[in-house]
Amino acid sequence: MRIDLHCHSTASDGTDTPAELVRNAAAAGLDVVALTDHDSTRGHAEAIAALPAGLTLVTGAELSCRIDGVSMHMLAYLFDPGEPALLAERELVRDDRVPRARAMVTRLNALGVPVTWEQVERIAAGGSVGRPHVASALVELGVVPTVGDAFTPEWLADGGRAFVAKHETDPFEAIRLIKGAGGVAVFAHPAAAKRGRTVPEAAIAEMAAAGLDGVEVDHMDHDADARARLRGLAKELGLLVTGSSDYHGSRKTVSLGAHTTDPEVYGEITRRATGAFPVPGTGGA
User: Fold this and answer.
1) 92, 166, 177, 283: which has the fewest C-beta neighbours closer than 10 Å?
2) What are φ and ψ of residue 22, in 5° steps?
3) Along the 285 residues of the chain, how does pLDDT read in single tens digits?
4) In angstroms, rounded to a whole number, what is the distance separating the alpha carbons of residues 176 and 17?
5) CA atoms within 13 A on the CB side of 133
6) Cα–Cα distance for residue pair 74/185, rounded to 1 Å
7) Residue 168 to residues 39, 63, 97, 171, 204: CA-CA distances in angstroms?
8) 223 φ/ψ angles, rounded to the nearest 5 degrees
9) Whole-angstrom Cα distance, residue 9 to residue 21?
């Protein structure tokens, strides 16, 4: 089985619609794919309706968190999307995205970059607006060559010249909310140092004690040393180890299935989840 547990669609900052994502996942030879848009489950229904035969969909979301001033992401799998407490927190985070993006546009204008809110809104195309959409606007204007090049101190990285903070959930609260909604919590790309400061291992140990289920180890932003270190930490703490592409369509160079999760780990995730179940494809539209 080929299992990719971290993908994005146009419901957040990917470039594939949810229907295109599942069709592309099947074409890439995946058996299981997770749709984990940022703080949103809006793409799930479309993905389920289009799910090809032979492909299983894991519903989820990637929650925006912050601990001790360090931004981090928590992957939530197979939770009940209508559970009130987690739903309210996701909405709180999403509602802060628009004023935050507008404030980044204002800062970029003050730096002499002629980006407009209308441009960012067009790029987001109704998705949950975020920094990647502002970064794409910088690429369109020729300010940077790629989206990744916008995530530097000069522009949009944490603490960068045009960075603006947003509401982010405390990770311990996120774990509590995910568990309360019957879901499984996995720390996304914990050693992605090029994105900014990373969470110390001591904090990961505290999260494990609070109910964290796993860590995403095999990821494009982790080199071999980081993966070995995380595997050792996961073994020490009794955490599941996942691998994923973090696919964003054309917004990133990584391909679907570039990194995958062991079937036994996937099986354990599905056993732990009580809020929702994987959806088998029956040949969608």
Assistant:
1) 283
2) -70, -35
3) 999 999 999 999 899 999 999 999 999 999 999 999 999 999 999 999 999 999 999 999 999 999 998 989 999 999 999 999 999 999 998 888 889 999 999 999 999 999 999 999 999 988 778 899 999 999 999 999 999 899 999 999 888 999 998 889 999 999 999 999 999 999 999 999 877 789 999 999 999 999 999 999 999 999 999 999 999 999 999 999 999 999 999 888 899 999 999 999 999 999 999 999 999 997 765
4) 30
5) 30
6) 7
7) 10, 8, 10, 9, 17
8) -80, 180
9) 7
d(Cα 247, Cα 230) in Å, to the nearest integer?
21
In the structure encoding, which two tokens stand for residue 189, read together? 């790309």
Number of residues that make up the chain: 285
CA distance 236 to 250: 37
Alpha helices in 34-130 (DSSP H): 44-49, 84-95, 97-110, 117-124
CA distance 248 to 133: 12
Nearest to 187 by CA among 122, 234, 141: 234
The Cα-based distances of 254 to 5, 219, 279 in angstroms read: 14, 10, 25
Of 47, 10, 3, the residue nearest 28 (C-alpha): 3
State the pLDDT at residue 259.
98
Residue 66: count of CB within 10 angstroms of its CB: 17
**Phi-psi label, residue 240: left if phi above 0, alpha if psi -120 to 50, beta otherwise:** beta
